[in-house]
Amino acid sequence: MVEQGEVPAGRRIEDYGLIGNLHTVALVSRAGSIDWFCPGRFDSPACFARLLGDDRHGYWAIEPIGEAQTERAYLADSLLLKTTVRSKHGVAELLDYMPVQSDCHLVRRIRCLQGRMSLRFICSPKFQYGRDQVEVVQEEGGFIFRADDIWLRLSPNPALKPRGDGSVVGDIALTEGDDFQFVLSHCSPHQSFEPLADPAAAQEQCLSWWTTWVSQCTYKGPWRDAVVRSLITLKALIYAPTGALIAAATTSLPEVPGGSANWDYRYTWPRDAALVFDVLLRSGYPHEEEEWRDWLVRAVRDSNCELKTLYTADAQLKTDETTLDWLPGYGGAQPVRIGNAAGEQFQLDLRGEVIDMLHLVRKEGQTLKPEMWRLQCHLLGRLHEEWRKPDTGIWESRDSPKHYVHSKVFAWAAFVRSLHDVEAYTLEAPVDEWQKACDGIREEILNKGLDPSGRYFVRFYGDDQVDASLLMIPLLGFLPPDDPRIVATVAEIERHFCTAEGFVYRNPLSEYTGREGAFILCTYWLADYYMIAGNEAKAIRLFETLLSIRNDLGLLAEQYDPVNKTFLGNFPQSFSHLSLVKSALLIGAHQKVEFSGDGDA
Predict the structure, then answer these.
(1) Which of 74, 369, 390, 529 sits most deeply, having the most CB atoms within 10 A of its CB?
(2) Would you state the pLDDT for residue 600?
(3) pLDDT tens digits, 422-450
(4) Alpha-carbon distance 566 to 552, whole Å?
(5) Are residues 328 and 365 in the same domain?
(6) CA–CA dist 330, 426 (Å, integer)
(7) Model's pTM, two decimal places?
(8) 371 or 523, which is more confident?
């Protein structure tokens, strides 16, 4: 059983690697166990949920018997994960991947490279997030795990036998040259399984697919390996049938060890998506950005012409939130949640982030369909009506709404970017109305968004504390980075929210150090600020500090605990990886970015 705060050895968040097929993903532990897998789609019920529980909740282990050391790496620029196992008797290699050409196969290949190796095999799916036992039927084509709404088939092997608890188990003795492949496929009950006719060919095709995709990357800077790994991770979190970006692969990995801030991130936030597709476009991937634009139009159209906080991968609204009482949670952190009630929130900044992205797309020379300008005008019309309203902010506070300064600045950015586009691209718009709103928002922020002394910006109107999200004020070009109010705001953030290494918390250090982790996204924002303020050395130093906290596979979670040197929050997190790429693009240019005066920095 997992006690509160306890995480089994080898199963910390940073001990996991990612594989996926652009429909869903699986997380593979350092020891060779798949402990999280949602067949078919990112937000489908997990059949391996040991990540949030224990052995009772489903896993698939191929692990050495006896003492062994493991090391792992991705094959080239791909999502094929190789784990090398070394014991005193031999060396074996476990290769895990999911063919991109199909949405229903998970492949595990084990080869003995030297000497001999004994491995323990346990495939123990438990459907509905570990709640439901399965029936195992042995057939000529393999073992069938059956439930009411999904079947899994495991390819046969003479060493494997079914067990009464719904598992398939066996001890596999390998000698040099032995090579076994196991394929777990899924389908709906009574449908035929799609065969993986030639796993060896599938492996080569999968590797070729990823390396071909990576070859389009235009980034040539000094941190190419880190940037490419982040781009691959972002691509893995895009749902291919619709082009939607998933915020993270998991649900309920805690922001506070043993705490209750456990959220389901297996959905798409327009805010996150807008930022991600901006960096994908600037890294050489216009196709992904075009697909997201089509998704955005569908999402707004299907939600009564509103832009909601979050959607499912197929652009449906997702606002219900339930708890899974049978799961003890990662390290005892409860409750475990599925769904996300933040979908019901009003977040003022969303429209600004989406419109900022469309503005950047035009600046990159991309041609937008006329319907995108109509959508932009519609969003601005709603923003014109609503910018004076309080909201829940970027951190999705579940307290009463407030007038968050970060949200107001993004509302201002929506108008100033759109006014720029009207002039630059000869577009039709109610210019006078937009200019009036733009000027009104700016005036209000400067009158109400500062502390009582007028020295620095605050979290929300009437407050006296700063917030890490205020780092976006100079990054959006609201004021130049050397404006005394910006300098004072950053100084307050550094004083109250930053560690000595530069890691940025969302809340004051006195309240959260050692509990909630530092927010990786905000720390990248600080590095970006240093760069546009002309402090290149400080920017690079903080950026490379952030590179150093990635796990051995180059992956990042939402937060990093610099006290205990561990990840917190859902994993891998698109916000963290997009920030890495965005900062590399900015800092890697090795030039100061001047304040333009038109709202662009």
Answers:
(1) 529
(2) 52
(3) 999 999 999 999 999 999 999 999 999 99
(4) 13
(5) yes
(6) 54
(7) 0.94
(8) 523
* Domain hosting residue 439, numbered range: 216-381+391-587
Q: What's the CA gap between 433 and 332, in Å, rounded?
A: 53
Specify whether the CB–CB gap between 254 and 329 falls below 8 A. yes
- Assign residue 112 the CATH number of its domain: 2.70.98.10
User: DSSP per residue over 222-251, as a string?
Assistant: TTHHHHHHHHHHHHHTEETTTTEEPSBS-B
Nearest Cα to Cα of residue 562 among 494, 511, 514, 492: 514
The mean pLDDT of 90-111, rounded to a whole number, is 93
- What's the rounded mean pLDDT across residues 467-492? 97
Give the mean pLDDT of 204-220: 96
| Residue 601 located in a structural domain | no
For tokens 């369909």, the residue is 369
Residues 257 and 195 in one domain: no
Residue 120 has a CB neighbour count (10 Å cut-off) of: 15
Q: Is the pLDDT of residue 223 over 90?
A: yes
State the Cα–Cα distance between residues 243 and 265, nearest whole angstrom.
Answer: 17
Q: Strand pairing of 81-86 and 90-97?
A: antiparallel
CA within 13 Å, CB half, 386: 21
Q: Mapping DSSP to helix (H, G, I), strand (E, B) and coil, where does residue 557 land?
A: coil
Give yes or no for residue 601 having a pLDDT over 70.
Answer: no
132-163 burial: b if 16+ Cβ within 10 Å, else e: bebebeeeeebbbbebeebbbbbbebeebebe
Task: State both tokens at 88.
Answer: 């005193």
- For residue 331, the cross-strand partners are none
CB 185 within 8 A of CB 196: yes
What is the CATH classification number for the domain harbouring 328?
1.50.10.10
Q: Measure the CA–CA gap between 483 and 382, rounded to whole angstroms.
A: 31
pLDDT of residue 305: 80
| Omega of the bond leading into 39 within 30 degrees of 0 (cis) | no
What distance in Å separates the CA atoms of residue 117 and residue 114, rounded to the nearest whole number?
A: 9
* Contact (Cβ atoms closer than 8 angstroms) between residue 136 and residue 151: no
82, 113 contact by CB (below 8 A) = no
CA distance 85 to 14: 19
pLDDT > 90? residue 101: no
> What's the farthest any 2 CA atoms get from each other in the chain?
78
* Residue length of the chain: 601
